[in-house]
Amino acid sequence: MPQLFAYRARNLAGRLVTGRVEAENTGTAVALLREKNLFVVSIEPVRTIGLDWRELFAVKIGVRDLAVFCRQFATMVGAGIPLLKCLDVLAKQAQNRQLQRILREVITDVEKGKGLSDAFNQHRRQLPEILINMLVAGEVSGRLEQTLLRLAVHFEKEHEIREKVKSAMTYPLFVAGIAVAAVVALLILIVPVFVDIFNEMGAELPLPTRMVIGASTLLTQYWYLWLLLLAALFLGLRYALATKKGKAYLDRLLLRMPVVGPLVSKTVVARFARTFAALLQSGVPMLQSLETVERIAGNTVAAAELAAARAGVKEGERMAGALLKSKVFPPMAVNMIAVGEEAGTLDDLLEKLSDFYERETAETVERLSSIVEPLLIALVGILVGFIAISIYLPMFGLSGAIQGGAM
User: Fold this and answer.
1) pLDDT (tens digit, 9 = 90+) per residue, 331-378?
2) Domain Type II secretion system protein GspF spans what residues (predicted)?
């Protein structure tokens, strides 16, 4: 993700100039300034406060569309079709309109003389980091076809694990939706009918009944406030999660949760191992690969640990050493990384690690789904039963009073 840097530099005349430049990292920012004949005196990232609204509404291209694109691109490159012709064909047949637009702009940039990776780099907000970095490596090494095939496999696996999670959680979410709809229907359609009966009776209502009537009144008479509250809650959560502070708090909270924490950890490790292996196999330098996986880790705690590992590698240390006290990476993962570093087969071991944790993630999600389903069904029964009992409690009391009066 591009970052804004504030700099102080001297031009060819020796004059001190200040300004800001947007770049991927400090090294890239310095290189961009050197191209403008500016010699950097000091440079530091600009600390943004609050929310970058472009990040809030930026829409990424789906991994399924990227997998299809990379595989088709690799096939055409392998067949010897010229690059611009490949891009033109892909733009015409792309089903995703945003991807189609990006490819059209990439074609225009390539026709102007830009490199392929530079052209795609203009669309970093919509494209994943791994795609940009591996395209750079593919261009430099002259192995664009192999790089695209690795990208296709990477995105296909990412899509596969996401689909497994979605399919496992579909039924629990369906049950939760039915539960909410049933409770709302009871409160809006059924309870108001009994409210009129209770008013005619003039009897004192028990606490559960008053609670249900209060909830029904809030839904029927102040429904617009609920809509405003839901909208405010949604935007508030979206805003909080788009800020670094809010995202960091949520990530720490998820890792501490009993069942969700291990699932988040396995998902992060699987994504890290798969992405890191693909980058290394494509010839991307280790430090640059670590910088990429740090940004796409999906968890700020894991990203901080990977940043520490990258700093250690930069100083000549082993990556596994910095992860020994990790809160995200389990001992098995750290030990396999250590073995890979010692034996010089880190990319192969990372592939095996990603396969293992992808299976673990799928199995954990299925187990979690099997636990959540009966809990949700029980919750529905409890809520509906509570509403039903609350409605009939005054009638039981009235019936008892009538029988006592008759005697």
Assistant:
1) 888 898 899 888 888 888 998 998 898 888 888 888 887 787 788 888
2) 69-192, 272-394
Distance CA(194)–CA(209), nearest Å, equals 10
How many domains does one find in the chain?
A: 3
Q: Compute the distance between CA of residue 110 and CA of residue 106 in angstroms, rounded to an integer.
A: 6
Its pTM surpasses 0.85: no
Q: What string of DSSP letters covers 107-150?
A: HHHHHTT--HHHHHHTTTTTS-HHHHHHHHHHHHHT-HHHHHHH
Record the tokens describing residue 62, joined without a space: 């789906």
91 assigned to some structural domain: yes
CB 313 within 8 Å of CB 341: no
Please report whether residue 114 resides in a domain. yes
Rounded CA gap, 293 and 278, in Å?
11
For 336, the domain range is 253-364
Q: Are residue 258 and residue 329 in the same domain, yes or no?
A: yes
CATH code at position 70: 1.20.81.30
* Final residue before a domain boundary, out of 49, 69, 84: 49
Q: What is the pLDDT of residues 264-301, one digit of tens each?
A: 888 889 888 888 888 888 888 888 888 888 877 778 88
